[in-house]
Design a protein that fits this description.
Blueprint lengths: L18 H50 L33 E3 L16 E9 L24 E10 L8 E11 L2
Antiparallel strand pairs: 1-2, 2-3, 3-4
């Protein structure tokens, strides 16, 4: 009698991965790791840019707060003198035009004290007259509509915040703001 098998013979069980499976898994994991490293680098750059922008905005606001309580024109010389008078220093500036063409490095805080920890930043300030009914005047200092010393009763104060990564690196502008100050 011939005995036939009614049950198929179980196949030999595999153990482990084939070379192709292992290669594919390594490739997938490797791509994931590379992608995560690129994402980490991008996040680090964005964090640095956000830190620089926040610091720059704070430094510009420090200048605005410093100038908030100052006279529009010089208390002693009135409208006849533009810029710091004689031997004035930062501590004795008494009107807004004293700050014109000044660069502070290290930058100053709102009470005019240098912030030495932020020496990689600089505040560059300009003050230009505008007419109260023509606020767009003097937007281009290289081709002014009004002479800088013209008294109009209004001025645009512009603060540029500059940054450099190292003391020998060139300055780059990271933030700029301006506001109108009216005599009153």
């Amino acid at each position: 009698m011939i005995h036939t098998r009614t049950h198929p013979r179980p196949e030999r069980q595999r153990r482990g991965f084939t070379l192709m499976e292992a290669s594919l898994a390594t490739l997938i994991v490797g791509l994931g790791v590379v992608s995560m490293m690129q994402l980490f680098a991008a996040c680090t750059r964005q964090n640095r840019a956000a830190f620089d922008m926040t610091t720059a905005m704070l430094l510009a606001q420090n200048v605005q707060e410093t100038m908030a309580d100052l006279e529009f024109t010089d208390p002693a010389y009135g409208k006849t003198y533009f810029g710091p008078e004689g031997s004035q220093t930062l501590a004795t500036y008494d009107d807004i035009d004293d700050f014109n063409a000044q660069t502070f490095n290290p930058p100053i805080d709102s009470v005019r004290k240098p912030i030495t920890e932020l020496a990689q930043y600089a505040q560059v300030i300009s003050v230009w007259p505008v007419k109260p009914n023509w606020l767009a005047a003097n937007t281009n200092p290289s081709a002014p509509d009004l002479a800088q010393t013209t008294y109009t009763g209004a001025a645009r104060v512009t603060v540029r915040i500059m940054h450099r990564k190292a003391s020998t690196a060139p300055w780059t502008e990271v933030y700029r703001t301006s506001w109108i100050r009216v005599a009153g």
